[in-house]
Amino acid sequence: MPVAIARPKLEGNIAVGDDRQIGFAEFGDPQGRAVFWLHGTPGARRQIPMEARVYAEKRQIRLIGIDRPGIGSSTPYQYDTVFAFPDGLRTIADTLGIDKMEVIGLSGGGPYALACAAAMPDRVVAAGVLGGVAPVRGADAIAGGVMAFGSMVAPLLEVAGAPIRLAASGLIRLARPVAEPALAMYARISPEADRRLLVRPEFKAMFLDDLLNGSRKQMAAPFADVVVFARDWGFRLDEVKVPVRWWHGDHDHIVPFEHGLHVAARLPDVEMYHLPGESHLAGLGRAEEILGTMVGLWDRIDQK
Length: 304
Known about the structure:
By secondary structure, the protein is of the alpha/beta class. The chain has helices at residues 50-58, 85-95, 109-119, 146-175, 179-189, 192-198, 201-214, 221-229, 257-264, 287-303; strands at 10-15, 21-28, 33-38, 61-66, 101-106, 124-130, 244-249, 270-275.
């Protein structure tokens, strides 16, 4: 039997330029403290666990999922660097009447969360990263992981990305009728720790909700992510002055645990949460713990 999942309180698009829009989905308490949740690669604005949606409602958190360009109904766009992303988030926050915020990024959302923290220290209270991608260019670079392959294909995506993105968007439409068995198949080939999450009914419901309702129109964003991750990010990790909390599984098969340690060692104010035996999706399975930690950190900062 399908699991009912909390629907967005508010959902739509916000203009972030003369010819660009970004999609968002808002959960929880509209009057609560704002936490922006940046999806993985691939993913979209509804890639937020059901536990997080419910917890936000109970604990007066205004939880907002943000698309990246080229997913759902967001206008396709290629950032020059990761550091270009915060301008759009600043506009979204302004439009939604948000002054102070926390930003949490999962996997491919991690670099963007750090960019927001570096660009807006006056507004971003703290940042959380769940198995985030590490830099592959510049002074903070580290080799290996999924971006070793991403760096090889990025030049191809830059020159031939349009037809590839078009084909991927077509696959999304074709996948709708078989989305649930396809997710089950992916779970079977995933590491044990991720498989345990993917077979849980509430996680299946979240991923299907995101695929069928969040990502349904297009699938350009993951390719744009790969291109920009393969470049210099446009900022240095030691420029992230706000507190960062980082969760990483030591069996992560996508972003190696060593990458998390590497990035954490270069952040001025960071606390690393080592997740023994967990893999890439571990952060999604600890949504309540993560939100509780981040809001508790905000409380302590306010008391100083």
